[in-house]
Amino acid sequence: MSKEELKIGEISKPRFEFRSFGQDFDEAHYRMSRLSMPVPEKVWERYSEEIYILSKTNDINNTKIRDGKMDIKTFVKTVDGLEQWNPLMKGEFPIKVSVLKDEVFPAFQVSMPSLTKDVYTYDEFIAIIKEHPDLQAVRVSKERYGYMVNNTICEFGIVKINGAQVVTINSESTEVEDIKKTIKDIGLDGVENINYLQAIKRVIGMIDKPLANE
Questions:
Q1: Is the preceding peptide bond at 133 cis, omega within 30 degrees of 0?
Q2: Of 187, 193, 154, nearest in space to 170 by CA
């Protein structure tokens, strides 16, 4: 059976991912850029401002808000140290209380706050998050540079987490062996796989552990 050819920005079957965060991936980024095949101009450079909702009680559901839309992904499994995440829900603001009760807060795995309105705006939702003892809204800005190595979608990014700057590098694909080859080719063998959820929690002190090369 032939492998699926990945295309940046297009939906494929669920992918596996290697990602790490630290202060210096310059050498790996250089190798990634040199080994990359040409990629569409739309992914050469991308910028975004996002809000991640962090829960003290779980590490399996990753919630972010961008451009007024909420996206929750859930952890599926790990294969050879590579993580697979699938979409759990998508929504946008204003958002119905039924969605908050049935999908959003159960994903956080925290106690249900008092929800008395039928519909909540973005600002009202964030106010609820800020008042909840087990939840925290974190501002994340991303400056991302896209590549394609060994038919894996790759990225180097400069990320600010509540203003604290770190860098990230990743490779993702439906094919585990292609990612493993890419990790080796760009010189990241043995570097810890750290997803966004873990990285943000480490930076804000919710998890007492350093990033990959700190």
A1: no
A2: 154
CATH architecture of 16-66+74-86+136-204: Beta Barrel (2.40)
Give the angle 97-131-47 at the CA atoms, nearest 5°: 80
Other Cβ atoms less than 10 A from the Cβ of 89: the count is 17
State how far the Cα of 105 lies from the Cα of 139, in Å rounded to an integer.
19
Q: Write out pLDDT tens, residues 1-41.
A: 345 555 555 555 789 999 999 999 999 999 999 999 999 99
- Residues 153-177 have pLDDT tens digits of 999 999 999 999 999 999 999 999 9
Per the structure block, which two tokens stand in for 129? 């998050």
Pairing status of strand 95-96 against strand 82-92: unpaired
Q: Give dist(CA 185, CA 181) in Å, integer.
A: 6
Question: Any idea which residue has 């450079």 for tokens?
Answer: 45
- In DSSP terms, 170 is beta-bridged to 19, 155
A 10 A CB-CB count for 118 gives 9
Domain assignments of the chain as residue spans, ordered by start:
16-66+74-86+136-204
Residue 68 to residue 86: CA distance in whole angstroms: 21
| Predicted TM-score of the model (pTM) | 0.91
Beta-bridge mates of residue 54: 136
Q: Which two tokens stand for residue 91?
A: 């929504």
Q: Are 113 and 63 in contact (CB under 8 A)?
A: no
Q: Which amino acid is at 100?
A: L
